[in-house]
Amino acid sequence: MSTYFSRMGDGSAIEVTAEEIKADLIEGSEDAADRGNIPPLSKEEYQHLLDIFTTRAKFVSVEPGNEVILTYDAGTLKIRRVGVNADRTLALQIYEKLLGADTMELSHVDYSYKPVKAIVGFEQPVLEQALLSTHVPLFYGAQPNLGLYSQPDGPFPNPAELLPKGDIKGAQASYEASVEDLVQDIVYIAECMIESGADGINLDTTGAAGDADFQASLLAAEQIRAKYPEACIELGMAGEFVLGMHSELTYQGERLAGMYPHRQVKMAEAAGASIFGPVANTNTSRSAAWNLARTATFMKACCEAASIPVHPNMGMGVGGVTVNDHPPVDIVSRSSKAMTEICRLDGL
Amino acid sequence: MGMAITHAIASGMGGMRAAGDLVARMQIARGMKIDEAKAHVAGKLKCSVSDLTDPILMNEARDELGLGLLHPYGGSPKCMEAKFNIAELLEIDVNCVQRFRSHLSASNL
Amino acid sequence: MASIQTRFGDGSPVTMSRGELRQDLEEGTADAAERGSVAPLTEDDLRRLEDIFASPHRFLGVEPGREIVLSYDGTPLKMKRAQVNVDRLQSLQIYEKLMGADTLEMGHVDYSFKPVKPIVTFEQPLMEQVLSVTTAPVFYGAMPNLGLYSQPDGPFPNPAELMPRGQIKEAQESYEAAVEEAVKDIVYVCGALYESGADAIILDTVGAAGDADVLAGLKATEILTEKYPGICVELGMASEFILGMHSGLSYKGVRLAGLYPHDQLKLAQQAGARIFGPVCNTNSGKSTPWNLSRAITFMKACCEEADIPIHVNMGMGVGAMTVHDHPPLDVASRASKAMVEICRLDGL
C-alpha cells in the first residue's frame, strides 16, 4: 500500500497511508465537535483534506480567486528575533515590499501593553514616520498580558500563589483589580496610537492569562470603540478555550470561562471588534491530519457564526501549524490552503 | 519569517505586489467580509475579482491610479501620497491621511 | 571693560561684567564647599575659569595632551529620541565610526533593568552581534529605577502614598523590599549581558529614587564583581546628593542619605565599581559661571579622593550643562574644558 509523507504536531516526519490519514481526519474533527458542541466536517470536506494530504507536491496553494488577506502579530518583532538588524520602519518596508504583506503591525519588543505605557512617547513618532513611508494598512499591536499585573512584576497579589493556598476569593479579587489597570493601559496606548494615525489596533494573544485577560480585552475594545467609532480593532486569541482562572467572570451576561471560538467571536463582536482572530492549538503528539481537521472544525463553526471578518491564527503551534520555530513549508502550505478553502476565511 | 512567506504564497493576496493592501483596507475601514471586500476593490479598479492577485494587471492599475508601486520610479506617487489616492478611490477614511490633512494649513488644502 | 557673553542654567543668554563673573565664580564654589564640606577652588582655579569665560571664542577645547576618554549613557536611546531610524547596531557603528566614540553603550528603550528582564534573550544576541562588528569597548547600561517596583507599576506599596499618611515604617519596608527585587533584576540582566561578552556594565542614574536606589546599585555591583571578578562596572549617579527617601539605610556602616560625590565615591569603590560617574546638578536660575564653579568644586574633591577612574556626568542639566535638550556649544565646550583641566578627570 502506498504511503504519504506527513508530520506529527511537533514537526517530526512520518509516513502514513491514505486510510490512516482519513482515520485521523475523522478523529480530529470529532474531537473538536465533541469539545465545542459544533458539527464535525462533512464527507466532502474530509475528502478535500484527504486530497490535500495525499498530494505528492511539497508545496500546495489555494485555487486562484480564493486568496485571502494576511494580518500579522508581532510583525516587527520577528525580524528582530531572527537577528536581522533592521530598524522597525525598515522592517515594515521589508514586509511590505519584499514579502508582499497585505497589512503590517508595529510593535514593541516586549509585545505587551504595560511596558509600552512608559515609552509610548517613543512609539508614536516611529508609527508616524512609518505611516509616511509605507502603503499597507498599519496596525499597532501588543498583548494584554495580564500576568504583568501580579507580583513580583505588578502591583497585585499573585493568584498563582493564592490559589494553591485555597485563597480563592483573594485570587479572584486580584484578577479583578488587574483587569481594571490593564484596561486603562490598553485604552491609553490605543488612544495614543490612533491619534498618531494607526490604521488599526491589534489586541493579540488575548486570554493568555485566562478569563480575566479576555474580559479586560473585551472591555478595552468596548472603550476604544466608544471613543473612536471608525477605528479598526483586531482581537486575536491566545488559545482555543478560555481558561477559567477566575472562573466567574462574565461579559454582557455571558460567562467567559470555557468558551470556544464560535462563542468567543460573538463576545468580540459585542465589544465592537472589527476583526476576530480565533485559535486552535496544535497537539504535538498527534498527526498533522488530526490537528488540521480539528482546527478546521473549530474555525468553520467560528466563521459561520461571525458577522465580522475572521483571521484565524496560523503561527507556530496553532491552526494546524507544527510546534517549532521554523514550521516546514509542506505542512504550513497544506494548513493554509485547507483552512482558507474549507472555512471560507476572510484572512489569516 | 519562513512561515509568513509560506502563507503569503500559499493563500495570501500579495499585498502591494497586487491589491492585497486595498482589500485589507476595506476590512479595516468597513469591516467587510472577504468576498465583499474583494468585490468592492474590483469594482473600483474596474477589474474582475480574480485579477486582484495578478501582479501584472495590478501593477498597471496601481500605476495608472497612483496607488503606490512595489518598484516606484521618480515622480510616481509613493507612500503617503499613494494613501491619499487609495482613500479617494476606495471612498474610505484612512486615519493617517485624515490626520496629515488636518495638520496642513488651510492654504495648503 | 569688555562684557562677557554667557548663559543661565536654563540656557538663556546673559551678559555680565568681569566683576560679576568673578563674583558668581566665588559664590558657586563657596556654595559647594559649604554643602559638601569640601575645599573651595583655589585662586589659580578661579583665574583659569575667568579666562575660560572671558575667551571671545564660541567653542573652546582642552590643551593637546589633556584629552580624556568618553563613556556614554543611553546611547542608542538618543538616536531613537531624535527619530533617526537606525537599528541599535548601526547606531553604535555611527557612534564609533562617524562620531569617534571611545566607548559604546547598548541599552533598551526604557533604559531600566526591570523591563529588560523579560526580553533579555532579545538583548543578548544583539549584544553578541554588536561585539562582532565593532572595535570600541561595548557597555550594557540601564538604570536601577527603583520607582518601577512600587505600585501601580510594581509589587510593593507606594512609599509616596504611605509617607503623607505618616506610615513611615511601612514606607521604609517597601523601599527595603524593592531593593531586594531590584538587585536581583540588575544582577540577572547584567550577568546575562556580561556572559554574552559585554565589555562592561553601566548602572546609570543611580540614586534617582533616593538612598534605597543607591543601596540597590551598590549591592548589585558587589554581587556582580564577586561573581565575575574581571567585570568592569561603571556606577553613574543621578544627582549630587543622595536623597534620604528611606533615611535609615547604610552600606558598609555608612549612612547613605546626604552623601556628596566624594563620599559616594568611597562606597562605589568598596562595592567594587571600576569607574565612578559623579553628578552635580545645574541650577537653572543661576549663571553658568556659578554652576560650573560649583560643579568643579564637588568634582575636584571627588577626583582627589578617587583610586578608580572618574567619568563626570556632563549631560543635559548636570556638570554645569544647561537644562535644555540641545545644550549650546559655547557653554558645553567651556564646561568640558574647565572640568577636564581643573579636576584632572579620567573621562566624561
Write a structural description.
The complex is a heterotrimer of chains A (about 350), B (about 110) and C (about 350). With about 350 residues, chain A is of the alpha/beta class. Chain A has one domain (about 5-345): TIM Barrel (Alpha-Beta Barrel). Chain A is built from twelve helices and nine strands. In chain A, the strands form three sheets. A five-stranded parallel sheet of chain A has the order 3-4-5-6-9, sandwiched between helices. Chain A has a two-stranded antiparallel ribbon with strand order 1-2. Chain B has about 110 residues and is mostly helical. Chain B has one domain. Chain B has helices at about 1-10, 20-30, 35-45, 55-65, 80-90, 95-105. In chain B, helix 2 packs across helix 3 (about 35-45). The longest helix of chain C is centred in the middle third of the chain and has 28 residues, at about 170-195. In chain C, the strands form three sheets. Chain C has a five-stranded parallel sheet. In chain C, strands 1-2 form a two-stranded antiparallel ribbon. In chain C, helix 4 runs parallel beside helix 6 (about 120-135) and helix 10 (about 260-270) runs parallel beside helix 11 (about 290-305). In chain C, a hairpin with a 2-residue loop joins strand 7 and strand 8. The model of chain C has no long low-confidence stretch (mean pLDDT about 95). Chain C starts with a strand and ends in a 5-residue tail after the last helix. Chain C has one domain (about 5-345): TIM Barrel (Alpha-Beta Barrel), CATH 3.20.20. With about 350 residues, chain C is α/β, with parallel strands linked by helices. Chain C has helices at about 20-35, 45-55, 75-80, 90-100, 115, 120-135, 160, 170-195, 210-225, 260-270, 290-305, 330-345; strands at about 5, 15, 105, 140, 200-205, 235, 250, 255, 275. The chains are: A alpha/beta (about 350), B mainly alpha (about 110), C alpha/beta (about 350). At the A-C interface, helix 4 and helix 6 of A face helix 4 and helix 6 of C.
